[in-house]
Amino acid sequence: QVQLVESGGGLVQAGGSLRVSCAASGRTGWNYAMGWFRQAPGKEREFVAAITWSSGRTYYADSVKGRFTISRDNAKNTVYLQMNSLKPEDTAVYYCATNRDVNWLRSGVGEYWGQGTQVTVSS
Questions:
Q1: Phi and psi angles of residue 16, each rounded to the nearest 5 degrees, phi first
Q2: What are 62-118's pLDDT values in tens digits?
Q3: Can you tell me the distance from the alpha carbon of 18 to that of 10, in angstroms, rounded to the nearest whole number?
Q4: What is the number of other CB atoms lying within 10 angstroms of the CB of residue 89?
């Protein structure tokens, strides 16, 4: 069983930066992957970024490449999403998710999900 808790969301002006965190508890296994998704009102859930726990390989959606960076802290069982050069279209609820298979996770299939943290970018 895995529990995920997101934090760090808030209100920021366009062009600003924000870092959200996801702390995991419980057994995940060495090969588990963790990632971030987002969902805006009236829109489908969108993949943002993912990282494998064992190797640290990263994956990004084209819309955030060059602006967002995903990273992990093994000692804290925590993943971070550093968001720079934020745009109003980045406004959404950001969710953390895990899966034993990074490819399933990238496809939107999560075995565990967090409750989400709101990120609002004003113009």
A1: -85, -175
A2: 999 999 999 999 888 899 999 999 999 999 999 999 999 999 999 999 999 999 999
A3: 8
A4: 11
Q: Give me the residue label for tokens 């939107």.
A: 108
> How far is it, in rounded angstroms, from Cα 46 to Cα 28?
23
Give φ, ψ of 103 to 5 degrees. -70, -40
**What is the largest distance, in Å, between two alpha-carbon atoms of the chain?**
41
Measured CA to CA, the distance from residue 21 to residue 5 in angstroms comes to 8
Phi and psi, residue 100, nearest 5°: -65, -20
Q: Left (φ > 0), alpha (ψ -120 to 50) or beta: where does 111 sit?
A: alpha
- Give the other-Cβ count within 10 Å of 38's Cβ: 22
Report in angstroms the alpha-carbon separations of 115 from 38, 49, 50, 87, 94: 12, 17, 17, 23, 9
Run of H or E including 98: strand 92-99
